[in-house]
């Protein structure tokens, strides 16, 4: 093939890897037309048109609109292209952040589902838990006779202003075991399991229990924790976390939501405890 030989649309499509239907569409919208039409309106292209097509394919791959490409095909400068590429780079950065965040949400939800699916629901168990980042909300102000959901809904309404992503599982943070025992449906704060958070749930030995019920319904969990700690000679050493590992994302009936309750503990007396903690990825 020499530089002056014209190519049929079929030949041009084979050389460029572009579908004939795409070439027809480009011609119909005036973006890229053949150099000549033969009998029966057959389209013929010049080999030099591959240069123009490369511009179109490159910018299309980068997400530039065909309308904008048409403007640039008619007239462009290096400065115009650079400005366009900077704009597109910013847009791709935004999309990448969105993809990374969605990936993180999927990873976190899968982790919660796995934890709930293997939970020993009838038992209080000892676990050595890893540290985990999260975002703590503001201190809650439960007014007299105020129900759990009223304060929780206020937290949800303010979440956007505080950059708290509610697509991550949320839970209740209790300042200590006494708060949980006295007001088990009134956490000191709510939190999001957003792994980009600046707050941290500390690693260490925890008592872990599970209970089913709607948000804020802790049933006999306070008594179960106290009984286990007393019988096994533990003292509570830090804040308590209620994390809903199975919530509305995975369970239709809200009365069947599954909450994980975890609180750090230490031996109550100076003696060795001959136990082997099960190190897991629980929260």
Characterize the structure shown.
The protein has 283 residues and is α+β, with helices and mostly antiparallel strands. The chain has 2 domains: 7-76, Multidrug-efflux Transporter Regulator, Chain: A, Domain 2 (Orthogonal Bundle); 105-280, Alpha-Beta Barrel (Multidrug-efflux Transporter 1 Regulator Bmrr, Chain A), CATH 3.20.80. 38% of the residues lie in helices and 23% in strands. It is built from 8 helices and 13 strands. The strands form 2 sheets. Strands 4, 5, 6, 7, 8, 9, 10, 11, 12 and 13 form a 10-stranded mixed beta sheet that branches. Strand 2 and strand 3 form a beta hairpin. The longest helix has 40 residues, at 78-117. It is elongated.
Ends distance? 67 Å
Largest sheet: 10 strands, mixed
CATH architecture of the largest domain: Alpha-Beta Barrel
The tally of domains stands at: 2
At the first level of CATH, the class of the largest domain is: Alpha Beta
The average pLDDT is 90
Low-confidence segments, given as residue ranges, are 271-279
- The helix/strand class is alpha+beta
Strand content: 15-25%
At CATH level 3, the topology of the largest domain is Multidrug-efflux Transporter 1 Regulator Bmrr, Chain A
Q: What is the overall shape? A: elongated
Number of helices: 8
Fraction of helical residues: 25-40%
Question: What's the β-strand tally?
Answer: 13
- Assign the CATH superfamily of the largest domain: Regulatory factor, effector binding domain
Strand/helix succession: EHHEEHHHEEHEHEEEHEEEE
Secondary structure layout plus pairing:
Elements: E1 7-8, H1 9-16, H2 20-28, E2 36-37, E3 43-45, H3 49-61, H4 66-74, H5 78-117, E4 125-129, E5 132-139, H6 148-159, E6 170-174, H7 177-182, E7 189-192, E8 199-201, E9 204-212, H8 221-231, E10 234-236, E11 240-246, E12 258-267, E13 278-280
Parallel strand pairs: 4-13
Antiparallel strand pairs: 1-3, 2-3, 4-9, 5-7, 5-8, 6-7, 6-11, 9-12, 10-12, 11-12
């Amino acid at each position: 093939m020499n530089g002056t030989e014209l190519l049929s649309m079929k030949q041009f499509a084979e050389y460029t890897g572009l579908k004939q239907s795409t070439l027809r569409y480009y011609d119909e919208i005036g973006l890229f037309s053949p150099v000549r039409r033969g009998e029966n309106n057959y389209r013929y292209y010049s080999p030099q048109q591959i240069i123009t097509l490369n511009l179109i394919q490159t910018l299309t791959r980068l997400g530039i609109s065909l309308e904008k490409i048409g403007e640039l095909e008619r007239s462009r400068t290096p400065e115009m292209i650079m400005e366009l590429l900077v704009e597109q780079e910013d847009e791709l950065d935004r999309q990448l952040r969105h993809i990374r965040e969605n990936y993180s949400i999927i990873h976190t939800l899968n982790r919660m589902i796995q934890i709930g699916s293997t939970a020993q629901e009838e038992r209080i168990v000892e676990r050595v838990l890893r540290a985990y980042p999260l975002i703590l909300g503001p201190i809650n102000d439960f007014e007299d006779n105020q129900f759990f959901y009223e304060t929780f809904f206020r937290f949800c309404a303010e979440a956007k202003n505080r950059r708290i992503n509610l697509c991550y599982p949320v839970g209740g943070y209790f300042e200590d075991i006494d708060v949980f025992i006295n007001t088990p449906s009134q956490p000191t704060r709510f939190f999001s399991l957003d792994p980009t958070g600046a707050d941290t749930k500390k690693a260490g030995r925890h008592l872990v229990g599970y209970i089913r019920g709607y948000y804020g319904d802790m049933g006999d969990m306070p008594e179960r924790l106290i009984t286990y700690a007393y019988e096994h000679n533990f003292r509570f050493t830090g804040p308590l976390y209620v994390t809903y590992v199975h919530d509305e994302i995975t369970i239709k009936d809200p009365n069947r939501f599954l909450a994980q309750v975890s609180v750090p503990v230490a031996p109550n007396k100076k003696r060795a405890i001959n136990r082997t903690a099960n190190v897991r990825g629980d929260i």
